[in-house]
Amino acid sequence: MTTIKRIVLASRPLAEPTPENFRIEDVELQEAEEGDVTVRVLYLSLDPYMRGRMSEAKSYAAPVPVDGIMEGETICEVVRSRHNDFAPGDIVRGRTGWCTGAVISGDMMRKVETHGAPITTAVGVLGMPGFTAWSGLKFIGKPKKGETVAVAAASGPVGSMVGQLAKLVGARAVGIAGGPDKCAFVKDELGFDAVVDHRSRDFASDLHAAAPNGIDIYFENVGGHVWDAVFPLLNQFARVPVCGLVAQYNGHDTSDADRLPAMMSAILRRSLLVRGFIQSEFAADHFNDFLDEIGPRVAAGEIRYREDIVDGLESAPEAFIGMLNGKNFGKLIVKVDGVV
Amino acid sequence: MTTIKRIVLASRPLAEPTPENFRIEDVELQEAEEGDVTVRVLYLSLDPYMRGRMSEAKSYAAPVPVDGIMEGETICEVVRSRHNDFAPGDIVRGRTGWCTGAVISGDMMRKVETHGAPITTAVGVLGMPGFTAWSGLKFIGKPKKGETVAVAAASGPVGSMVGQLAKLVGARAVGIAGGPDKCAFVKDELGFDAVVDHRSRDFASDLHAAAPNGIDIYFENVGGHVWDAVFPLLNQFARVPVCGLVAQYNGHDTSDADRLPAMMSAILRRSLLVRGFIQSEFAADHFNDFLDEIGPRVAAGEIRYREDIVDGLESAPEAFIGMLNGKNFGKLIVKVDGVV
What we know:
The first copy, chain A, is α/β, with parallel strands linked by helices. Chain A has helices spanning 49-53, 128-141, 157-168, 180-189, 203-210, 224-230, 246-249, 260-269, 280-299, 316-323, and strands at 3-9, 22-28, 36-45, 74-81, 91-94, 101-105, 110-111, 148-151, 172-177, 194-197, 215-219, 234-242, 273-276, 307-311, 331-335. The longest helix of chain A has 20 residues, at 280-299. Chains A, B: Residues 17-334 form the Enoyl reductase (ER) domain. Chains A, B: GO terms for molecular function: oxidoreductase activity, acting on the CH-CH group of donors, NAD or NADP as acceptor.
């Protein structure tokens, strides 16, 4: 028998998750059956949506049960295979959860294809976050040359892609990020036209100055006070793809006043389009198109990205808690180095 | 010189408009120039959007200036013409405002075409309200067979059309109306599948019972407590075309709690589409299609409608104030019988 480590949801967070909401434990790997692959985990992707799975609230996906393994996507190496499509040594990705190894149906795994870019990009710029940016812009935001596209968490895996894709169609990319280092990266490395620090006291006026012609597309992934600053700047016929609301996941985003009537009024008066989406809506039909279009550009260095890699499965809870407060800088990935 | 009567905005309302916000006055008609037509007004259309024009708030259209004529669309008879497209006796429609007669550029007027239906339908079921329903469903709501379409003010000109168009594609039409008379009309005369009285204490549970499979399209024209009841019932991928918010035009729709985070969360979790629109966005390209498709059905009695006609221009302010509180029953029209 082989023992692996995994992290389970020990209890549900009331607001911000704490280390006590997680528990690391040793478990025996189950016996592989026909069609299964046995994999060792190389990298675990940490993503904001996981906060939603820790709560019981109704959502697009079922919550993680208490004492159940935390959900998540990993990059793995196949060690043993009883599935025709996979052989030992294959690099694959799939939803094994927060663990060091797994026995899992090969039908649930996909081979990693990155067009020569590092394999970690398969959970970042060339994975779910990159595809979120690409599909949200392509099917909802639809930026046109000369329009202004704004996005928060602009140094992160979704935001960095949104701005760079906007530039490719000739739109003005305005990034919003927290702190001088991230802002410098967004402007200098990613090539956004402008960047605004949301921690500044002058954030709202800075944003207005950065978007002198208003905002035509706001790619919403944070909510909170960023939304409050963006909202007055939205132009007639602006589009707001909503893929995340990190600022309110921990229950912090409230106002003394009821902001709903003002929002509905703006939606009406300015003919706004607000559309929630999960990338999985588009993935079956379009993920391969995305990879063929963006993969070579990432491999060639034309599309830039940044990763924030922490070491060891046991580091995952603290890294995840920090991410919800913007402490990561780039796509947050846990290097696992599992053995099975 | 010819004297006409007109109604101007005497002052801006603070909340609900009052009769003192309006003033009726006599003015001399200007001299007609080449290209102008001189018209006598037969009917004035009263519509909720006019409340927005009385305020200074930024909107899709400029506010009516204080002492300026109240904006509005009328059905007129051409009395004299200096425009090649029009001759005396022609029945036309255009935005003359609240008045008994006008000299106006013929380029601003359109001949009334109703496929044999009464000419008043040109400002109702076959005019702007009907087209609002048709275009909002066709381009935003996109109802499919078997889906559930809900609409408030269901006995009114927009709502009555929304439900009947939904039925034509095989969707379930759920109407929301105020009071037993309107509810009976919506169910018995318009043929909706179900109707719910929003004045009932059990409104929210009644609505749930009327939409047992949830709501796929909510055609939003009122806001307020109707929205609060609809919102939890919206299905994954529901669409919300927003064409009006009557309940909040007078500033009444507020809540002690901030409803915005819950709405954004639902937009994300249920992949909702919320889209404000004004029918004019679609009218240039599609109004004739609408008229060709719907006109004959109205003329043949297949699509039903109800008008609420009040007499005399001087009745307009009181009728308008009542409409904002749901006192009208059907499309509100003022019979003017102007002389020029």
